[in-house]
Amino acid sequence: MSARGSLGHRDTRIALAVSSVAHTFAHMFVLLYATVVLVIEAEFGLSYADLQWLAVPGFVMFGAAALPAGWLGDRWSAPGMMAVFFFGVGGAAIVTGLAEGRVGLLVGLTAIGTSAAIYHPVGISWLVRNAPNPGRALGINGVFGSMGTAGAALVAGVLAEFFGWRAAFLVPGLVAVAVGVAFVVLIIRGDVRETRGEAPPTAPALAAQDVRRAFLALFATVIAVGLIFQSTSVAMPKIFADRLVADGSALAVGSLVAFVYAISAATQLVGGELADRFSLKRVYMWTQVLQVPVILVAFLTFNYGLVALAIVMVGLNVAGQPAENALLARYTPLAWRGRMFGVKFVLTLGVSTLGVALVPAIADWTGSLNYLFVALAFFAACAGLTASLLPADRTEARVNTCVAAGESD
């Protein structure tokens, strides 16, 4: 069945719609605080670095909880876990919005990260099982994830500016709960069903040494890629506030960050097309290598050219994700694919939380985030090097990219 045809199937349309909304929420909710933190220093009597440290446990759980969430999705119910996701992130955001002190913020932000962790291992595999040809469906889904990253800064900035910082958590939280109620209604009506099969053909048998080499190179690379994505998404509001927005307006900063992520989101579709047409290894490697000079130029830029450079930085980072997921699917047996994606998200969202911790650490040590760019360039160089160690493509099996060409974080 064609990709267009697969998107026309009722089960696929519902799975794509729900998964795309959930992907948006997963990235948006964990990043609301990155903008809100700019306007709450006076109320809580804490510095930016002290407040930012409160978000680190949530980012740890965003990755660490992915593996048990994926296991529950496989053993219990993927739709059931998706319902838990909507109620979890919504309820946690409401708790955060009602926080009265440091402990309340810590509990709420950690609960947001824990609940948001459900999406990636459960939602992506659920969508794959419902799409006979998932490439296009997952490409669209990936764009929605990037739009969630973009929307976080804008939503938080607008709500905080006009209604106070608590509204930046309470309003999205209530929306997520409402979506969860609607999703449960779909389950009860039988419009959402558990699907255990998978339509796309699996990859041909590969040499054991290639599989081992691929996993070592991939896991090292996804950690570096995740470090860049996580630290950039958390630090960008502060960097723009320091370098571009003199009055530190949350709305102005949020609008700039949203613009960067909205424009760069489309590069995932470009990355998917490149992965379909060229060597997965080369596409993946070059999207990492090309980030290095762009990041170094950004380090030296203190004008609005930084916005354009940020678009290219983020665009290259996410453009490699379709090839990354296609490579992981190529080297993973079908029976283990869900768990391996869970492991990947533990690495890219959990271990890479070190990148989030770098933000307050560098702010503490140097008084600014300027030298974060040097760390980002180092991570990108490491990612390019480890990606170059992947086995060379030895087949014409472009069918592999159909499995996960669009599965992006």
CATH level-4 homologous superfamily: MFS general substrate transporter like domains
How much beta, percentage-wise? Answer: under 5%
- Overall number of structural domains: 1
Query: Helix amount, in percent?
Result: over 70%
In total, the number of strands is 0
Average pLDDT, all residues: 82
The span between the termini is 26 Å
Oligomer: single chain
- H and E string: HHHHHHHHHHHHHHHHHHHHHH
Q: What does the largest sheet look like?
A: none
CATH topology: Growth Hormone, Chain: A
Structure description:
With 409 residues, the protein is mainly α. It has one domain: Growth Hormone, Chain: A. 78% of the residues lie in helices and 0% in strands. It is built from 22 helices and no strands. The N terminus and C terminus are likely disordered.
